[in-house]
Structure to design on (282 residues):
C-alpha cells in the first residue's frame, strides 16, 4: 500500500528553481565586449547576441525610452545621456562629468540581467519602418539619397557605434537633412565628417544636392527619472574588471577615463579623414 501511495503521489515540478538556474546559466554565458568610438563620451557594447532584428533605434531621454524595456533600464544609471541600438551592438553616451569606471559596471549588469530574462529589446510600439526604405512617394532624387546612405554611409558610421538617419530633402534648396545618432551625436569629428565626407560624396553622385546639414531633435522637456537603485553590488563587482562575463573575463577596447577634450580635438581631424577615406573606397 505504501508503495502504491508513493507511486501515485504527484510531485511538484521545480519550475521556479529551473527558471532561476536557466537565468544564471544564460548570465554566465554572456560575454560583453566594449569598443572605443571617435566620441570619448560614447562607448560601444557588443553582447555577442542580436540586439535588433533590423534597423536602429535611439533614445535621448527616459521618456523616449518607454518604448524599450532595455533602454529604460540603462537610463536608470546616473550619468547616461542617450542609448543607441543597432543589430549587433549598443552605444551608450554619458555625461562628461561621470567617469566610465562608474557607469560601465552598471551597464554590464543591466544588459546581462536583461538577456538572462529574455524580454524584447523593443516594444511593438517602438518598431518602425527604416528611414531608407524607398517608397512609391519618393522622388528619384530622394530614392538615390536613401540608397547612398544605406550602401555607402551607414556601414562606415555604424562601425564607430553611430548612425546617420535621413530626415528630408528640400527640392528647392537642394539641402539634405540628416540626424546623427549614437556616438556620432556630439562627436568632435562629426561636423568634419558630415561636410568633408558625406556632403562631398552626395554632391558628387547626386548633382541636385547642394548641401548636407545635421538636424538636432534633442528633447528639451523635463527628463524626470524614477528613483531606482543601481544594479546589485555583486553584479557590479563581477563587471568592474573591464569587459564582463559571468566568470569575470575582461572586455576589449575600454575607453580611457582620462580622455580629455584636447585629445579628442586632436584626434577629430584624423578620425574624419579616416571616415572619408573609408566612404570613398566603397
Amino acid at each position: 500500500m505504501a508503495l502504491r501511495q508513493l507511486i501515485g503521489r504527484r510531485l511538484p515540478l521545480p519550475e521556479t528553481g529551473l527558471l532561476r538556474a536557466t537565468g544564471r546559466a544564460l548570465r554566465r554565458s554572456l560575454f560583453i565586449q566594449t569598443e572605443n568610438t571617435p566620441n570619448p563620451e560614447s562607448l560601444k557594447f557588443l553582447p555577442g547576441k542580436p540586439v535588433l532584428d533590423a534597423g536602429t533605434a535611439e533614445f535621448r531621454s527616459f521618456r523616449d525610452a518607454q518604448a524599450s524595456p532595455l533602454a529604460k533600464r540603462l537610463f536608470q544609471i546616473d550619468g547616461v545621456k542617450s542609448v543607441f541600438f543597432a543589430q549587433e551592438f549598443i552605444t551608450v553616451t554619458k555625461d562628461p562629468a561621470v567617469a566610465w569606471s562608474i557607469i560601465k559596471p552598471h551597464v554590464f549588469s543591466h544588459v546581462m540581467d536583461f538577456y538572462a530574462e529574455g524580454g524584447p529589446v523593443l516594444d511593438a510600439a517602438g518598431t518602425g519602418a527604416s528611414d531608407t526604405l524607398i517608397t512609391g512617394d519618393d522622388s528619384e532624387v530622394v530614392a538615390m539619397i536613401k540608397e547612398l546612405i544605406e550602401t555607402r554611409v551607414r556601414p562606415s558610421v555604424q562601425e564607430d557605434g553611430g548612425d546617420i538617419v535621413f530626415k528630408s530633402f528640400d527640392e528647392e534648396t537642394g539641402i539634405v537633412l540628416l540626424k546623427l545618432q549614437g556616438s556620432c551625436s556630439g562627436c568632435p569629428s562629426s561636423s568634419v565628417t558630415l561636410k568633408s565626407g558625406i556632403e562631398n560624396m552626395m554632391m558628387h553622385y547626386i548633382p541636385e544636392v547642394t548641401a548636407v546639414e545635421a538636424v538636432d531633435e534633442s528633447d528639451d522637456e523635463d527628463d524626470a527619472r524614477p528613483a531606482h537603485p543601481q544594479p546589485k553590488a555583486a553584479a557590479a563587482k563581477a563587471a568592474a574588471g573591464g569587459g564582463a562575463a559571468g566568470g569575470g573575463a575582461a572586455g576589449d577596447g575600454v575607453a580611457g577615463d582620462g580622455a580629455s577634450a584636447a585629445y579628442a580635438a586632436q584626434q577629430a581631424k584624423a578620425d574624419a579623414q579616416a571616415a572619408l577615406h573609408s566612404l570613398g573606397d566603397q
